[in-house]
Amino acid sequence: MIGKSVIRKEAWEKVTGKAKYTLDTVSSGTLHAKLVTSPYAHARIRDIRTEKAYAAPGVRAILTGEGLPLTGEDLRDRPPIAWEKVRYHGEVVAVVVADTLMQAEQAAQLISIIYEPLRVVGSPKEALAEGAPLLHENLATYQKGKYTYPEPGTNIAHRTKIRKGSMEKGWAESDVVVEASFSFSPSDHAAMETRCATAEIRADGTVVITASTQAPFMIKRLIGEYFGEEVGKVVVHTPFVGGAYGGKAPVQLELLAYLAAKAVGGRKVSVWNTREQDMVTSPVHIGMEATIKLGATKDGKITAAEMVFLFDGGAYSDKAIDVTRAAAADCTGPYHINNVWCDSLCVYTNHPYASPFRSFGHCEQAFAIERTIDMLAEKLQMDKLAIRERNAILPGNTTPTQVMLNKSNVGNLPACIARVRELIEWDEWQRIEINSRLVRAKGVSCSWKTSTIDTDASSGAIITFNTDGSINLITGVVEIGTGTKTVLAQILAEKLKMDINDIHVKMDIDTQTTPEHWKTVASRGTFMAGRAVLSAADDAIRQLKAIAACILRVSSEDLEVGYGNVFLRDDPSVYIPIKEIAYGYKYPNGNAIGGQIIGRGHYILRHLTPLDKETGAGKPGPEWTVCSHAVEVEFDKRDYTYRIIKAVSVIDIGKVLNEKAALGQVMGAMSMGLSFASRETFFFDRYERVLNAQFRTYRPLRFGEHPEYIADFVYTPQIDAPYGSRGVGEHGLIGMPAALANALSTAAQVPLNQLPLLPELIWRTKEGWFNDSV
Amino acid sequence: MKSEVILHINGEQRSTVIRQADTLLVVLRHLELTGAKPGCLNGDCGACTVLVNDTPIKSCMMLAIETVGQEITTIEGLHDTAIQRAFVEQFAFQCGYCTPGFVMNAYALTTQKPDADEETIRKWLESNICRCTSYQEIEQAVRSVLVQKKR
After folding, report:
1. Matching CATH number, A284-453+608-771, of 3.30.365.10, 3.30.43.10, 3.40.1190.20, 2.40.128.280
2. From B89, which residue of chain A is nearest by alpha-carbon distance?
3. Where in chain B is the domain with CATH 1.10.150.120?
4. Cross-chain Cβ contact A242/B89 below 8 Å
5. Which ipTM value was assigned to this complex?
6. How confident is the model at residue A774 (pLDDT cuts 50, 70, 90)?
7. How far apart are CA A632 and CA A398, in angstroms?
8. Measured between beta carbons, which residues in chain B are less than 8 angstroms from residue A14?
9. What is the pLDDT of residue A130?
């Protein structure tokens, strides 16, 4: 069962159009909300006039930001609806609720708002410059988490410091030093299902929310914290989610749906983003400016790393703080460096606010680190894979946050590198001129990631038996596309030695009946929920054995569970079918014992600690998955266009649980990484307004533009994980931007240190390189 | 302006009241045929693809009133087809949101162009966006059906 490409449990629902997503569940009679958003990136709101809109047909309520509490997971800096000031283009200023969406849209156009534009902040560097306008004058007064460190009087929402070893020593030991700067603007997740939520408040005060989210249990908690609702009276439903990639981890529209429902006496209200709004109004993929300085000995041993990451958190910090912390925690990449100095800042700008994006800060920092390592290799005239092997992190080394690694909590990077070397035929050639125009080149990178989530993140599982001996499997993992729920069924089937078809998976989440899973993020679903499922199975096995022991008149220690029976280990002919005891056992005379078998289990992450404020020391996650990547391109020297020919990722997965699902996760992540790296960015005008918030001008990779994907695995078990498997949902993505940039830098023979790698960027860089200016 | 119309959907006659400005996508979803998904309402993503007289059409770009008298096929009208089986077996979906649109497009391609070459496959399928898979899985699903048809 383990490792097989078991067909996904929801496969037929999805290929027949029957799978229900949030918007598909909106019933007639539901009211519709239209968001009125800011046309300015930074402005004072002088006046909002809603009278005409109120008078429009069908309008039930109009919401503005007056009197609402500030929200935010680490730092409460964001009003759910802007009040007095807008801080990004697309920020919600008012919400119109009407009988139909069309009426809401028409009324929204009748709202008149007078803005007084303010000076805008267009990048982290601008935000940190002397005299920059402050986005949050009241930063000092905001409620914040214990481990969040805003710097009032500046645009810094949070700073993570990593201090390991001695920089003085590190530089003294180095023979060469390289330094380079990197940058890219915010971009988008572009999940095909735009974010949406409905809310209603029932007569007894129960708040019922249906949302397209990765964090139904966090919605429940936050509605309680922000608005004083009893947490037990907030019920969140999440059906299938149409893509998330981190963009549905933040809680935003759910708050508006709740407020809207409250404004109309509890009636059900639907809030749904248009594509254009989804791209700018809801949280985006973070931008970054970074400077990396590496020192190394002549033979390529890196002795010192100094890095500054200035993340463009946008107008509000929300989850961006965590992203910048995660980037810092793994700041060296998968390399053993004794002397490390890193400052990772979450900086406020007048851009749409940032959220997690698949890889959680890692593809961003890896782009900077891996480009610098290539530059170091060039300076040392070393092979680019060899320098990575030379510095590869190993058991016995410590991470930047000073966690001691062992054979379980880190994978085998040298093995990943060796496999990539074969798969991309690295030793054959790295750059060849095909003719006077075309050049082929290869680029490589390595990556790693741990999860940097709450130290007390937990997951629960419930299994209930049916009268035919089959099982219902209920977990809090949201089916966002990863296939985790099918993998969990495989884990259970393996444990109970039963047919996978006899395990029925509850796909949707209902926080009233589904056990909690912290959030479906961080590639931790299989590990945490998997452990919970194993624990629930053990619980059920114990119950099954207890009742069978009674019926069979044997000791429960002598019993085994499997193949639909409970049987004697040494004589399987003595057995009782599970279906006869699943709902309790009835003796021939009518007497009964037992009752429905209900197994329950949970798992909580172990021994994690927050990072120390001054040194960063602490344990952010349970294990590090390591990977190596390569990309081959064909570059046209005449017009600077290129084709991506081949992309390779080798990941130490520990153990494959479902082969096709695992390959799909890796290749899909690679695709997203290449799409981001090659073409995806928001373009801002001088007023920091987003110019390309639609798929015609923001153009993700399409069919036919995809290269050949090769995903392969190395198997170093994580001993405490189900069957030794490691997190793998994001890792194919992490090294892609770096590998592509390295390949193109080799092809064009110019360092390419910005994203996305549009032909125009390559042309500008190349021209600038030779002419000493652009 | 509203009018009552009869639409021919998946072999059935469906009577409904529509505004003349309603797109086919909106009307289908009101009829609880929610397989066609809104993704961009701008013809860019293909999540709302249905067949009108066997031609794949982005239903967000066509007015419902234009389809009166024409044969509309939505994902709900396909039952256990080769392309659906191929999508299941090749893991050619993840979140599933773009899947109905991709399946409709690929269904029309594989039934109407059994000899499709690489260029034809690309031209047909580049109109849809999938954000989860690498497209390689979808390509394999489509090719596996084309190979079956050739046999």
Report:
1. 3.30.365.10
2. A7
3. 78-150
4. no
5. 0.98
6. very low
7. 33
8. 93, 96, 99
9. 96
